[in-house]
Write a structure and sequence with these properties.
The protein is an alpha/beta fold. The protein has eleven helices and 21 strands. Bound molecules: ligand LLP. Ligand LLP binds next to helix 10 and helix 11.
């Protein structure tokens, strides 16, 4: 069943109409379906069957505490990339041993906090970082478990800004440098390599790059084994794409099966970690917004709405496409609109060329924004961040209130007189 659906001319999230959410909470507002979120996580988990695995949800996709808590309750682990994400997951009830710490620029304080908390492992991306972790673990009198994040030099066929596994990207350790890092770790007293990791990019719509990356990682597993290094897990990162328009990305089941087949073809039975973000939460969330004005300029028709690029940056940053639909189509001729926000930038568009039957005051829904929507929002143009709501059957819960205007400058001060 589609949990976002029309019923008698009104758009609903599960059993709650968007009109009801708008009149109670206001707009703009992110709305998530609990049922979709949980269903997506389970699709990944079930696909593994008995194969030993961990799903580490990528917190960066959407770190709302309520979402993290729901995922915790289902047994998810977490992929974090900052001290802030560590704090969020702990606050939501996550266990440190169910977290891996990724990222190319971990600060001393972040590494210290992660080690003190007892994180499962740190995915190290350079010789300098390995050295830093060893030194910090030494001062704590600990031995830090590490995975080496490999850069497999595989083209993920995605937008260049979200491709991470190509040789020229800043991420990961080039394969030919790995033996040196293994020796460095061997000579250090406070680190222990327990895994290999990689993450080649986001919004991948084909399986072959994942398989190619895993193959490269497996070649390395065997050559390192010959040098006496026994690993405890492999981590293939996140990246599975979702449908925004006419893409046809593989389902989680096909994705997991392709990974497991690759492992079995090489007779590898190491536990597999994955770090999906978008494929769990992306299609579980929409952005509810209201039409302020309809405006025409030359041949263009604009629907000026109350959400903007500060709420949803993806169209401006990546040229991303998000479909927009009416909450309750008006009895007027459909017209092709660019749906734009009030921000003073031409890049402030949410979606282009959308055919809509609307009048000023009507509600619209921007689809597929559960991942990297609210998470990438800002206060640009001194606009408060939007509220967030989770729908659960015929109930809904505000899981983030609208920011207030005074919160916008609460950390600022003027110079002394
Ligand atoms: N693991 C690592 C190490 C990552 O860097 C990422 C995403 C993920 C997992 C999760 O990837 P996912 O399954 O969500 O594709 N802001 C961009 C996406 C940036 C992704 C960054 N890394 C967007 O809106 O498309």
């Amino acid at each position: 069943m589609d949990h976002f659906h029309y019923c008698e001319g009104q758009y609903f999230a599960e059993g709650v109409s968007f009109a009801r959410i708008a009149s109670t909470v206001g707009t703009p507002c992110y709305v998530y379906s609990r049922a979709i979120l949980e269903q997506r996580w389970r699709l990944f988990n079930d696909a593994f069957g008995d194969y030993p695995h961990r799903i580490h949800y990528a917190v960066k996709a959407n770190g709302n505490l309520a979402i993290l808590k729901l995922l915790c309750q289902m047994g998810s682990g977490f992929d974090i990339v900052s001290g802030g994400e560590l704090e969020r997951v702990l606050k939501a009830g996550g266990r440190p041993d169910d977290m891996v710490f990724s990222g190319v620029g971990k600060r001393e304080s972040e590494i210290t906090t992660a080690l003190e908390a007892g994180i499962h492992c740190i995915n190290v991306e350079s010789a300098a970082e390995l050295d830093r972790v060893n030194r910090i673990a030494g001062t704590l009198g600990a031995v830090a478990d590490l995975a080496l994040r490999i850069n497999p030099d595989v083209d993920p066929h995605t937008h260049p800004y979200i491709a991470t596994g190509l040789r020229e990207n800043k991420f990961g350790i080039p394969i030919d440098e790995v033996p040196d890092l293994v020796r460095q770790a061997h000579d250090a007293n406070h680190v222990n390599i327990i895994g290999l990791a990689c993450h080649i990019g986001s919004q991948l719509t084909e399986l072959s790059p994942f398989v190619a990356a895993l193959d490269r990682v497996l070649e390395l597993v065997f050559s390192l084994r010959q040098e006496g290094l026994q690993l405890k897990h492999l981590d293939i990162g996140g990246g599975l794409g979702i449908r925004y328009g006419d893409e046809t990305p593989p389902e989680p089941d096909a994705y997991v099966k392709a990974l497991l087949n690759t492992l079995s073809a090489r007779q590898c039975n190491l536990p597999l970690f994955i770090e999906p973000g978008r494929a769990i939460v992306g299609n579980a969330g929409v952005l509810l917004t209201r039409v302020e004005y309809l405006k025409s300029a030359q041949s263009h028709q604009f629907a000026v709405v109350d959400a903007a690029m500060n709420d949803l940056l993806r169209p401006a940053l990546y040229g991303a496409h998000h479909r927009v639909i009416e909450v309750s189509p008006a009895d007027v001729e459909p017209t092709t609109y660019d749906v734009v926000g009030p921000i003073c930038e031409t890049a402030d568009f949410l979606s282009r060329s959308q055919r809509l039957s609307i009048s000023p005051g009507d509600l619209l829904v921007v689809q597929s924004v559960g991942a990297y929507g609210s998470a990438m929002s800002s206060n640009y143009n001194s606009r408060p961040r939007s509220a967030e709501v989770i729908v659960e059957g015929d109930k809904f819960h505000v899981v983030r209130r609208h920011e207030t205007l005074s919160q916008l400058y609460q950390n600022e001060s003027t110079l002394p007189d």
